[in-house]
Design brief:
By secondary structure, the chain is of the alpha+beta class. It folds into two domains: 186 residues, no CATH class; 105 residues, Tumour Suppressor Smad4, CATH 2.60.200.20. 19% of the residues lie in helices and 33% in strands. The chain has a seven-stranded mixed beta sheet with strand order 8-7-4-3-2-1-9, with helices on both faces. Strands 11-10-20-19-16-17 form a six-stranded antiparallel beta sheet, with no helix packed on it. Strands 13-12-14-15-18 form a five-stranded mixed beta sheet. α2 crosses α5. The chain is elongated and about 70 Å long.
């Protein structure tokens, strides 16, 4: 029987905090979408070298090498075949996105050929420009017959998993071949189909609960509250067993320069005590917070500390 697993792999961690947050959100979004792929193994590889695809999708009978462009604007193809966003006039990937897709696909093949003997099993490797979150229906883009023959596709991120489920492109990949490609791209398992196995972009701080549990914080916004289910791309710390806490009680923001800010979003307010200071209530406002400060929300007390 063909094994069934939907895994996400990470090759390199971005060097700046914003990119790390975006990549983490992308991985969680893709993990949810991979449920649409259905039977058989599926591996998605993110974080490849500059010049390579933004993501690679491996299936037993197909490989997709994709660049991702984030926009909500319809796309237009001008008479000189330059692609632009209609709302801003900004060029899409320099104005020639399909050339960029071809170049990234070629770079991927060269990288695999250098480190693995599986290149001959890739079949007709499909190049794709993926518009996230979706390709606006009123975009004025037409792929010509040569682009279709060259296995180039334009689609929304919401169409990626259905495409991967149905695509037959001549690949002949088994588990051993999957492993060879993943090793060639120097990627490690990041999401096992159920959860992230490690975090990227950890902050310099953690929250210590009075129970002795240390809560991990990420760079950027960390949502604290009673609600368990995160919104898309959100990193949240769920406080259990305290019904006096709001569903989304506060946001602790860990800035790139090492500072931290606490923003109250609760019904009843959050109480903050700096080390050696008096407790103060903040309500629908934000306040800088330093290591050693305590945060009281409902009956729960947390202390902000630097990571050892």
């Amino acid at each position: 029987m063909t094994p069934v697993y939907h895994h996400i792999y990470l090759a390199q961690t971005p060097t700046n905090a914003t990119a790390r947050r975006h990549l983490r959100a992308r991985a969680l979004d893709l993990a949810a979408r991979l449920a649409q792929v259905g039977e058989g193994p599926c591996a998605v590889i993110l974080g490849l070298d500059s010049g390579c695809p933004d993501l690679v999708v491996l299936r037993p009978h197909s490989v997709i090498a994709a660049l991702i462009h984030q926009t909500t604007s319809p796309l237009d193809q001008l008479p000189d075949r330059v692609w632009v966003e209609r709302a801003s006039g900004e060029r899409v990937l320099g104005g020639a996105p399909l050339a960029a897709v071809r170049a990234a696909r070629s770079m991927l093949v060269r990288k695999i050929e250098q480190h693995s003997d599986t290149a001959a099993l890739l079949g007709r490797l499909v190049g794709a420009l993926v518009i996230a979150p979706t390709l606006p229906a009123d975009s004025r883009i037409v792929l010509d017959i040569g682009e279709h023959r060259d296995h180039i596709k334009l689609l929304g991120l919401d169409e990626l998993a259905p495409l991967a489920a149905m695509l037959q492109a001549g690949a002949r990949l088994d588990e051993l071949s999957f492993g060879g490609i993943i090793a060639a791209l120097d990627a490690r398992l990041w999401h096992n189909g159920e959860r992230l196995l490690f975090e990227v972009g950890l902050a310099a701080y953690q929250l210590n609960h009075t129970s002795g549990v240390a809560l991990t914080l990420l760079e950027g916004a960390n949502v604290i509250g009673r609600r368990a289910a995160p919104l898309q791309g959100e990193f949240r710390l769920t406080i259990e067993g305290d019904d006096t806490i709001s569903a989304d009680h506060a946001v602790l923001i860990c800035l790139a320069d090492g500072r931290a800010v606490l923003r109250d979003t609760s019904t009843n307010g959050t109480y903050l005590r700096a080390h050696g200071g008096e407790e103060q209530r903040i309500h629908h406002a934000e306040q800088p917070i330093t290591a050693g400060s305590t945060i009281r929300m409902g009956e729960t007390v947390l202390r902000l500390e630097r990571v050892p």
